[in-house]
Description:
Layout: E1 6-11, H1 15-27, E2 33-36, E3 47-51, H2 56-65, E4 72-77
Antiparallel strand pairs: 1-3, 1-4, 2-3
Amino acid sequence: MLRKTLSLIITFDATVQAMAAESCLQALGLPGRLIPVPREITAGCGLAWKAPPEAQERLRAALENANIPASGYHVLMV
């Protein structure tokens, strides 16, 4: 059985934004991976970036520097 952990979920309005975020964040060596958007969240596209909550500021800064808009930052048990 999978154990839920407190996670940062970054959502996007479009799949192209989620894919751009994945390329950018992986190239920078930042933590996380793309996942299907959890049921607890409604988002414009079906993909979200899941990472440790303590990485939020670094991830937000990287996305802003790359001009990749995120629709939301959520911390929840996933």
